[in-house]
Amino acid sequence: xxxxxxxxxxxxxxxxxxxxxxxxxxxxxxxxxxxxxxxxxxxxxxxxxxxxxxxxxxxxxxxxxxxxxxxxxxxxxxxxxxxxxxxxxxxxxxxxxxxxxxxxxxxxxxxxxxxxxxxxxxxxxxxxxxxxxxxxxxxxxxxxxxxxxxxxxxxxxxxxxxxxxxxxxxxxxxxxxxxxxxxxxxxxxxxxxxxxxxxxxxxxxxxxxxxxxxxxxxxxxxxxxxxxxxxxxxxxxxxxxxxx
Amino acid sequence: xxxxxxxxxxxxxxxxxxxxxxxxxxxxxxxxxxxxxxxxxxxxxxxxxxxxxxxxxxxxxxxxxxxxxxxxxxxxxxxxxxxxxxxxxxxxxxxxxxxxxxxxxxxxxxxxxxxxxxxxxxxxxxxxxxxxxxxxxxxxxxxxxxxxxxxxxxxxxxxxxxxxxxxxxxxxxxxxxxxxxxxxxxxxxxxxxxxxxxxxxxxxxxxxxxxxxxxxxxxxxxxxxxxxxxxxxxxxxxxxxxxxxxxxxxxxxxxxxxxxxxxxxxxxxxxxxxxxxxxxxxxxxxxxxxxxxxxxxxxxxxxxxxxxxxxxxxxxxxx
Lengths: 244, 319
Description:
Chain A has 244 residues and is mainly alpha-helical. Helix content of chain A is 80%, strand content 0%.
């Protein structure tokens, strides 16, 4: 078995041995369900789609993903197991990827467990299942980006609390970057092109497009490049720590 | 084989390891000795590839740790300071994780797994969470992790710290049986361990190498080397006589238990003349001992000299 798979397996196991996994799954599923019906007006809209469900996901991930990723490296640094892990024959890359994939698969599982809502909407009406599938894909990609951010920032510190707050902060900035209020704020001060660039950084814009069923390569690339970028930054941070 | 060449590591303006060059050959058990904060762990972390040296190189089995880290790490079994392990895993899960990380082949891995578990007497705790284990057991799990892939080079940072005397004995036996063809580097601040395990000692303080010798050579540096000590009630008279022996340099009496220690002049053997004199005096001696030398004294002498020197240097700068 490759070191990546071994690290991934160990991480996944540690989620389920500690209560982390169960607490996360319960909270995620309960919140995803109730927010869809109460805040999203699922019935009142009288439309056979899952828009109110997916619209809540960025805000759910904002709270829950940092809770998963905060311990990723901070805990290892604090407990001394980082020294054990990094003196085993694997590269920093393999360690980072193993941990990232474990978290991404786990969120994938949580997302998969929301399937009753798909069944519900399918039972109540005749939704476009392609759009819903695209919504799930977009949501999973967005979760991956959040996880990559969390993985990077967890490598920055020994404190899980600091890792949580930093991750949530960066994520909220990325979510809000495209909102009109934020853009209006920059409108006067910055050149038009820069404001445009900020708008394009917004996670919401790209996620909305995908979850409406528009699979644009640019949106997919946005998420893939973000993930890779944050993971590279995380690996560089870990490497920097070894020289400091 | 472990080689370091001018290995140096700075934390800010503090130099934790200062141009350390050592070479450990197969068959050697080298004890890295030094006071707390001497740089033992930092040096080991660099050799293990966890920390990157500020300058200098480290090689394990000929592989440069910086250039070919994976090959170097494969050749090395390493027990980090404090024997860290994943507390939420059971002992079995943890060791299986190491097997997978080391990429050991299935059937050989099973045999080796059983062998190591048996050697470190971990059979009864395989199913227990590492968090629930005692300090001694955790240390043994850490040792098992280090030797699982039967490495040619073994590096153990304070392997017997926190073990009771029986466990210490078992671990020392384990290291002894492994020592024959392997290169072993252990760090310790227990001087008894040096006697029990090492055939070479390197003493460092403030990151600098201060002594590199066999334990016997170090003992010879002690002023106790070749001294004779005995207990004899009512021997006030004979002390004077002993002092007149041509080979004797000085005599000390322990104020607590009255034990007398006779120090020889340089290069003289005094056991025989002292014994003869005591017999002639008709003194009843319950027990008489020829001292080999005291490592703790030599250790203190070597390491405090250095720190005194440094203090003087600092004082000089301030003045």
